[in-house]
Structures are given as structure tokens and as C-alpha cells.
Specification:
By secondary structure, the chain is α/β, with parallel strands linked by helices. It is built from twelve helices and 15 strands. The protein folds into two domains: 141 residues, Aspartate Aminotransferase, domain 1; 253 residues, Type I PLP-dependent aspartate aminotransferase-like (Major domain) (Aspartate Aminotransferase, domain 2, 3-Layer(aba) Sandwich). The protein has a seven-stranded mixed sheet, with helices on both faces. It has a four-stranded antiparallel sheet with strand order 11-12-15-14. The chain has a two-stranded parallel sheet with strand order 1-13. Helix 3 packs parallel to helix 9, helix 4 runs parallel beside helix 5 and helix 10 runs parallel beside helix 12. The radius of gyration is 21 Å and the shape is globular. The model has no long low-confidence stretch (mean pLDDT 95).
């Protein structure tokens, strides 16, 4: 008799975005002529930068010639891409990252979900609330979270409420935790931390020998000065932090799949006798066992964003989406909505009108004005009463969606 992993039975009935897709598809079936505008899932809509396309074409042609064909690549990624990442993303900001501390992967979602495998199931984890669902769900699958309470929260997770009272930013844990998930610029709220605020987290982790799992997938969208693009800008972070980054939103790679994780050799986890073990070789061991690497054409395409042409084209793409964010943010503010984010991130976190529940507001917008967003309750109990919109639509659809949302309020 095959026994099921009962931890999977603790998960919500479906992944948040799958549930949104199900509802939208049902609505379309019932209303085939509806002109639906999607600002829900954070998927890009602009085409790949030309420099990326040309680099991928060239790499594919290389794969078609015997003298330049490549078979299995290194599971950790090709060094030509790792070196470009270090040279362009970290060295200019004064961070010293070694090539063997960079792990190329097929997505930050995969890495943030898989990295928890390196830790024992008795670790106590802390997450912001609201939170990107993968951090919680992957730990549920591993058996690290206990049962669900009446609020829909897991008993062994420390939830850090992000409320208007604390500026939609997570407070430091009041008890000791072992694993801390931080995402800045934040998905879903679009908020950021200053260096001083982030240093408090690093200091906490050093004091408690905790590990910070820092999701920086949206760092390229930071517009203001003084906001850290990497946790490794903070003194001591190399001892306690792992950082996840992605080309998905930076360069339109949601369909290409390429990302990277920085695992400093200093960051440790401890065995039952208190002996420290570097996470760097453990992650390498995990990857060499369970992952065969990102394809050569995709890595060559990713490296092209660091050419002069590539940098210019990526900057233009990010500028396009951030202009969308401005249009959404200012349009909603003028209409009297309370909004957060959208300044250093492509997400706008809005308060629902008239104390409407998040899913009720989702249904209202979908049915009355055919605009799709993401209910805040899908990100956690403190997301109830809020709604997320993304800036990744076309300019025309972004402007039309704002007009419709404003009109829905009457």
C-alpha cells in the first residue's frame, strides 16, 4: 500500500494563482464576449530585449554545429554568466562574491521552494504576513509547519504582521526563530526596507544564529537612492543570508526560465551537536543530485543583458513597467483609494473599498468591469481587505484598467 505524504493534505485546495485562473476561466465560459484585462499574475508582457534574442539565436546555432555543440553543462551554471553577474550586480556596489557562490537555476520560485530541503524539520520559520505563498507551502510539504488553526495559519510558523500601523513592513520576531523569509522589494505589497531597517534583521540573525532567505527578485525595479539592492550590502550578512534573484522580471525571462542564488561560504546551519556546516557545499550537493542545469542558449541569452545594448534595453523595459505602476498608483489615489508600493516595485497594494473582503472585491471587479487582480487574502490573513495589481500589462490595458476600477467605485 502506497502511503501519501500527508503534509500535502494540509495545503489549501489549490495554489492561489491556479484558483484565480479557475475563476477567470469559468467567468469567460459564462461570458465569452467579456473584454478581460489581467493585472493579477505578475507575468511580463513586453517581448524579450533584442540583444537577448540575438544571443539566444547565436547560441542555438552553436548547438547545431559539431565543433561548438555542448552537452550537459555544469549544474551550478556556466562561469561566463556567473562572472557577468558578479561584475555587474555585486562588484559595483562593493560586494565581494566568488564565482562558486553563484548558482544558476531555472527560477527563483524553484530555488526559494527547494532551499528549505537543507534544513531539519524542527526549525522554526518566520514569514511576513501577507507573504508570497511558495515560502509557506514548500515548508508545509516538508512537514515543518504543524496544523492549521482557525485563522488559516500554521501553528509552527511565526507570522510577522505587515499592517498599516507598522508601515506594511514586518516587525522583528518576539521569539527566537531559525529561518526567516524576507522579500524586498516585496511581493505582494511593493514595499522596501532601508539599509538601517535591513541591518536590524541581519543583527537579529547573527545574534540567534538564524538564516535569512532573502528574495530580491525585484531589486532591478528600485528607483530611489539609499535602498539596498542586495542584503549583502549589509555588514555581516554573508554570515547569515542566502539571496535569490531572477531574470524573469528583470529581463522578461518568465518563459525562458533563468535565475540565480547566492550562497556565501560563511553562512552556516548546525547539526545536533552544535557543529556548523556551510550551506554552500550542501546546496551544490543538492543541485548536482536533483538538477541538471539551465540550457546553454538560455544562459547565453541571460549574459546578453549585461552588454551595453542589453543594459539599455532592460532599463527601457523596466522604465515601461514602472510608468505603468505610476499610472496605477496615481490613478487610484486620485479616485480616493489608499495604496502602497508602486514606487520601487511593479506591484500596487490597494485597500479594498467599503471594507469589502478581498475575494468579494475580486469578484466585483471581474464581473462588473472585467479587470483581474489578486485578492490580498490569498497572501495571508493580514492581506484580507487588500488587493494586488501588477504593472506588467500593456500601457493601453493599464490605462483602461485604471479607468474601469475608478468607474466601479461609482
Amino acid at each position: 500500500m502506497a502511503l501519501v505524504n500527508e503534509n500535502y493534505l494540509k495545503l489549501p485546495g489549490s495554489y492561489l494563482f491556479s484558483e484565480i485562473g479557475r475563476r477567470v476561466n469559468q467567468f469567460k465560459k459564462e461570458n465569452p464576449d467579456a473584454d478581460i484585462i489581467r493585472l493579477g499574475i505578475g507575468d511580463v508582457t513586453r517581448p524579450l530585449p533584442p540583444a537577448v534574442v540575438e544571443a539566444m539565436k547565436k547560441a542555438v546555432e552553436e548547438m547545431g554545429r559539431a565543433e561548438t555543440f555542448r552537452g550537459y553543462g555544469p549544474e551550478q551554471g556556466y562561469e561566463f554568466l556567473s562572472e557577468k553577474i558578479i561584475e555587474n550586480e555585486f562588484r559595483p556596489r562593493g560586494m565581494d562574491i566568488a564565482a562558486d557562490e553563484v548558482f544558476i537555476s531555472d527560477g527563483a520560485k524553484c530555488d526559494t521552494g527547494n532551499f528549505q530541503e537543507l534544513f531539519g524539520i524542527d526549525n522554526i520559520l518566520a514569514v511576513s504576513d501577507p507573504v508570497y505563498p511558495v515560502y509557506v507551502d514548500s515548508n508545509v510539504m516538508a512537514g515543518r509547519t504543524g496544523k492549521v488553526n482557525e485563522k488559516g495559519q500554521f501553528e509552527k510558523i511565526v507570522y510577522l504582521p505587515c499592517t498599516e500601523a507598522n508601515g506594511i513592513k514586518p516587525p522583528l520576531p518576539q521569539t527566537r526563530v531559525d529561518l526567516i523569509y524576507l522579500c524586498f522589494p516585496n511581493n505582494p505589497t511593493g514595499m522596501t526596507l532601508s539599509k538601517e531597517e535591513l541591518k536590524q534583521w541581519v543583527d537579529y540573525a547573527r545574534e540567534n544564529r538564524s538564516v535569512i532567505l532573502f528574495d530580491a527578485a525585484y531589486e532591478a525595479y528600485i528607483q530611489e537612492e539609499g535602498i539596498p539592492h542586495s542584503i549583502f550590502e549589509i555588514e555581516g550578512a554573508r554570515e547569515v543570508a542566502v539571496e535569490f534573484r531572477s531574470f524573469s522580471k528583470t529581463a522578461g525571462f518568465t518563459g525562458n526560465r533563468c535565475a540565480y542564488t547566492i550562497v556565501p561560504k560563511e553562512v552556516m546551519a548546525y547539526d545536533s551537536e552544535g557543529k556548523g556546516h556551510s550551506l554552500n557545499p550542501l546546496w551544490l550537493r543538492r543541485q548536482t543530485t536533483k538538477f541538471n542545469g539551465v540550457s546553454y542558449p538560455v544562459q547565453a541569452a541571460a549574459a546578453a543583458i549585461y552588454t551595453e545594448e542589453g543594459k539599455r534595453q532592460v532599463k527601457e523595459m523596466i522604465g515601461y513597467y514602472m510608468e505603468n505602476a505610476r499610472i496605477i498608483r496615481e490613478g487610484l489615489e486620485k479616485a480616493g483609494y489608499k495604496v502602497f508600493g508602486g514606487v520601487n516595485a511593479p506591484y500596487i497594494w490597494m485597500k479594498t473599498p467599503d471594507n469589502l473582503a478581498s475575494w468579494d472585491f475580486f469578484e466585483k471587479l471581474m464581473r462588473e468591469v472585467n479587470v483581474i487582480g489578486t485578492p490580498g487574502a490569498g497572501f495571508g490573513s493580514n492581506g484580507e481587505g487588500y488587493f494586488r495589481l501588477t504593472a506588467f500589462g500593456s500601457r493601453e490595458n493599464t490605462e483602461r484598467a485604471v479607468e474601469r476600477i475608478v468607474r466601479s467605485r461609482g
